[in-house]
Every structure is written in structure tokens, then in C-alpha cells.
Amino acid sequence: MQSSENSNNPESNQAEIPYAADENKIPGITNDATIQTEQKKDSSSPNLEHLLKEAEIRAAEHHDAWIRAKAETENIRKRAQTDVTNAHKYAIENFSAELLTVMDSLEAALAVENASLENFKNGMELTQKQLINVLDKFNIKAIDPKGEKFDPHQHQAMCTVDSELPPNTVVQVMQKGYKLHDRVIRPALVSVSKAQGT
What we know:
The chain is α+β, with helices and mostly antiparallel strands. It has five helices and six strands; from the N terminus they run αααααββββββ.
């Protein structure tokens, strides 16, 4: 009778099911989620420590590379600044070296005792040719605008004069101007013709 009571009693069946499940229990498998999570944490902890060490090593390498790159950039900046300073300071070095030959000619001419006026004039003309060659070599060109139309970008009018030339024409060059490549380094000093009737 007891067995029939047990079979008819649903509470007794429920009590036997967990017991049967415990007997068929597979090692390492459980229904407890908390224990499974703890096992995963324990098994992954060495990996996290290993990953952290690797990340720290990589961070140290990147920091070292950054420090080196910063130092190299600073060195390049200082070198460039020195180069610019030297370029400003010694920009006319070649030009100066070429002018020394002109200076030598002038000194030689002045050292001559008892030079005739003709010899002195010839020496000055040769020295002037040397100077013109030096200026040409460095693209310094004379501005000699006699008879040309007045250009305020290259000429400086000192006065206006009556002339048969068309108005605003350079009548006389009082002092030549000079250009370095296309830049005027000194305008020519000129007199300009007036417009008729003014």
C-alpha cells in the first residue's frame, strides 16, 4: 500500500527526481550558475594577467619610441634653425668672394706711383668691367631707362622737365637703378617730360 500511495502522491515523485538526477550526475557539470562563473574566472585569470603584462610592455615600448621621436624632432628643429641662421648670415659669401677681385684691382691701381691719367682711366675701366661681370653673375642688372616710358615701379621721378618727348617719358637718368632677378633693389633716379601745356 505504501508503494501505491507513493505512486499516487505527486510530492513523493518530485522528491525522487532530484535524487535520481544526483545519481546520474556528470562530473564537472552543475546547474549552479554561480559556480560555473567562478570556474571561468579562475581559468581566465592567468590570461588576464598575461595580457596586462603584454599591454604594459607595449605601452613602455610606445612611450620609449615617442620619447625618441620627440627628441629627434627637437634635433631637426634646432638643426633647421641653425641652417636658416647660417643662410642669413652667410648668404652673400659667394658674392663677397667675387667682389674681392674687384677690390684687388682697385688697390693695385692705387698702389701705382706716377700713373698717367690715361693709364689710370684704363685701369678704372677694367675694374668697372670686372664689377659688371660680378653683378651679371649674380643676376644684378642695371636699370637705365633713358627714353623709356616712366614706370613708378622701377623709376623714381626727381623732377619734370619741358621736352619734345611724349609726356611721362624719361628724359634724363641721374642715377641708374638696379634689379636683383625681378626685384628692384634700387629705383633709377630720373627726370620726366611734362605733358604739353602744363
